[in-house]
Every structure is written in structure tokens, then in C-alpha cells.
Amino acid sequence: MYDAAVPPSLHAIARARHLLARVQAAGVPALLEQQLVPGMFDAGTQLRTVGIFALRATYPLCGQDWPRDMLTGDFPPGPTGLDARLGVASEQVMRLTRADFDGAAESQINHIAGDAELTQRGQEYLHLFALPNLWFHLSMAYAILRQSGLEIGKADYDGFHAYERGFSFVP
């Protein structure tokens, strides 16, 4: 379960920080305030939530409540503070060891999903709830930033793809 939870969580945080760095390089911090639709989290909140779900995807599997430091810590406002929050989340996930995950697959995880109170086996919790939410929030941040005009592509999202500058799937 360590391998299924920790590396993807750290990768998602790294991708969130990369998208944030692209916003900072563009010099348009207001991009973080954009939403796809009214009532939805803005891009900055989506990125912050990637860090939250990295913690929610790992700590409950270890029988621990996820640390709230990235929510309650004293961080500067704006992109610098958001990057620091994501850094804290990354450090906290990196503290976990393989031994912390002993028995995680069969453990019972009680948690809240919106207004729903759920109990799931650790394996189901990770694969059907925590990781999908982690990637959902990263995807939404990517979509908002791209829709708002930031020049980013799939490589910025996943860190693996590579395309020539100006490439498009649409002729």
C-alpha cells in the first residue's frame, strides 16, 4: 500500500507545484483566482486541495488522522504561501515509512466525503476515493489554468509527455 499511496501523492504535489511555478513565471497571480464555473473552487484552492488529498490518501491508511499543518500554519499570502503549504504536505508524506502501512489494505477507514459518512477498506479507500480525488483536483487546476490562458500542456500536468512547441491534436 505504501507504493500505491506515497509515490502518487508525492508526484501529484510535485505537479501542483510545477503548475504553480508556471503561474508565477507568467507573472499573473490572478490566474489562481479563476474558476471553471461559479461556485467551484478556484485554481489556487484546487492546487491546495491536491496537498490535502495527498495527506488524506496516506495518513488514514497508517491509522493516523491526516496532519492539518498546511491548513493551520502561518503561511504568507498568495503563490508563495501556497507553494509553502504544498511543501509542508510533501514533507509530511515523505515522513511515512513502509512499516507505517502494515495492514493498511484491510484496515477500515472512516471518513467524510462531502456530507456522506463512509467506511471503506483501506484498499477501496485509496483506489476508489482518495487517489481519484487527488487527481480530480489536480485536473481541475490544470483545466482552469489552461482555460484562463496559461500556456500549459499535458507535460505540465503529468511530467511525462513531451510535444514540440505549437503541437496540436486539432489540425
List the helices and strands and how they pair.
Elements: H1 2-26, H2 43-58, H3 69-72, H4 78-94, E1 108-113, E2 116-121, H5 122-147, H6 154-158
Antiparallel strand pairs: 1-2
Helix pairs in contact: 1-2, 1-4, 1-5, 2-4, 2-5
Give the structure's gist in a few sentences.
The protein has 171 residues and is mainly alpha-helical. 54% of the residues lie in helices and 7% in strands.
Keywords:
54% helix, DUF1993, mainly alpha, 171 residues, globular, 2 strands, Four Helix Bundle (Hemerythrin (Met), subunit A), DinB/YfiT-like, DUF1993 family protein, two-stranded antiparallel ribbon
Overview of the structural elements:
The chain has 171 residues and is mainly alpha-helical. It has one domain (2-158): Up-down Bundle (Four Helix Bundle (Hemerythrin (Met), subunit A)), CATH 1.20.120. 54% of the residues lie in helices and 7% in strands. The chain is built from 6 helices and 2 strands; from the N terminus they run H-H-H-H-E-E-H-H. A two-stranded antiparallel sheet has the order 1-2. Strand 1 and strand 2 form a beta hairpin. The longest helix is centred in the C-terminal third of the chain and has 26 residues, at 122-147. It is globular. The relative contact order is 0.20.
CATH secondary-structure class: Mainly Alpha
Helix count, DSSP H or I runs of 4 or more residues: 6
Proportion of residues in helical segments: 40-55%
**What is the chains' assembly state?**
single chain
